[in-house]
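Issue: ligand-bound run for L263DTV3 - logging full I/O for the record.

Environment: standard queue, default settings, no custom constraints.

Inputs:
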Amino acid sequence: MTNHAAFAAEDAVTAVPPPAQAGRHFSSFPPRRARDCRKAALGRMDLAASGVLRGGSLLDSMKASSPRHAKFAAGADHEDWMEKHPSALEWIEAVVAAAKGKQIVMFLDYDGTLSPIVEDPDSAVMTEEMRDAVRSVAQHFPTAIVSGRSRDKVLNFVKLEELYYAGSHGMDIKGPTTVSNHKAKADEVLCQPATDFLPVIQEVYETLTAKMEAIPGAMVENNKFCLSVHFRCVDEEEWDALGKEVRAVLEGYPDLRLTKGRKVLEIRPSIKWDKGNALEFLLESLGYAGRGDVFPIYIGDDRTDEDAFKVLRNMGQGIGILVTKFAKETTASYSLREPAEVKDFLRKLVMSTGTKG
Ligand SMILES: O=P(O)(O)OC[C@H]1O[C@H](O[C@H]2O[C@H](CO)[C@@H](O)[C@H](O)[C@H]2O)[C@H](O)[C@@H](O)[C@@H]1O
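Outputs:
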């Protein structure tokens, strides 16, 4: 397969399915009191490891996030890569065996994992079948959605109130809003380490929205504690101009950092808090920190999910699963090709483990 073919396949957006129905409510896992995440987020950020886009060509970074330009896009290395990152679906028995006797805790990214990538971020709905699969997983194991989207937005897509949600790349974490007797309990924010940044994020959102009007196809999404500048629908010849414009705006805001995702530049507070911290925080909140009998599974498709994969790798517990059709640099140990395979994996996991967690 040529690199161009790889690009076309990976980036082909998916037709938007019809809107889904709201899910049922049922019991969940009450969170325990967690450490103060604001204090933890003040720790020193490892800029080298944080994926922060600093010096060098921003255009190169933007291209690198596009499979057409990616080093490992396709070709002879793919088989080798699959040996190192085998299909979690094909190896489900090995996964179940590794988790045997342990408490599985499920972490799921949203875009590209539970919903296919589409051109319009507001149309990235998930199918009712996927919702059923996630609902079923949450009946068996504590389950969290960890997304770059704002928490409200991702809840609005997933529509399952019995889950934990970590929005804004983990900077807005909240527990379930339903309990076993189906009565709503008071909303309880568990962790918001970046509240001080809300005014500045809003200011940058307004500035960037005005600037991006000049670039056809560009779009700025407000994800509450962070912003996404989308360039999926921007002509590639305009990417350089877009990147320079974003960087110029950020020069006035040294407390914000720029990272990249799938055809998106992401602006977030320069605090030491990412999806990896969110995973650790949730494990701690659930009372699982430091326990050897816990088996976290994190499934995600993007660069930002690598922070969580690294945490699992360092813990030496559980598994990271990268959703991709192409060989990519990753710390995940398994792979799945697309959201449809994620759904099948979730279903099989529930069937294979059988008992309630
Ligand atoms: O952490 P995630 O849940 O994966 O969120 C990451 C970003 O996802 C969304 O953008 C991506 O999906 C869009 C819809 O398929 C697509 O149009 C876009 O090109 C992708 O980058 C979301 O819109 C962003 O705000 C999230 O940061």
